[in-house]
Fold this sequence. Notes:
Helix content is 83%, strand content 0%. By secondary structure, the chain is an all-alpha fold. The two termini are 24 Å apart.
Amino acid sequence: MLGISKIVTDLERAGDEAKKIAKGVRRIYENGHVPSQFGIGVRHLAEAALIMVRQALDAFARLDTEQARSVIRADSEVDTEFKSIIRQLITHMMEDPRTITTSIDIITIARAIERIGDHAKNISEQVIYVVEGRDIRHTGKEGIK
């Protein structure tokens, strides 16, 4: 029961992150900016995080620990993609300081997406806890095998 309660909390927090994304996108478009060159990277990040959420919820519905482990492994790819976007945006801001405001909004959006991926990972860890009774949260790669 405790594991399920934690899953609900992670879903709620993922929803809070989605709200941050919506506010950031609205701010960007209200200021007349369409971040085309970074939109592709952020969209790719968002698709990866969305896949993680879907798979985590599917793993929970099916009590499928293998799929849960797959989601946990996918989190490092989302983290790497996020860091790449941050590096690109910092370079972009240094080259053209007029882009700082929009770049910060994009960073906020990307960070919220990355956090949604983290919540999907947390859900998957709870699925393993519910099914196997093992807490793998702080065990590293060995714990998810």
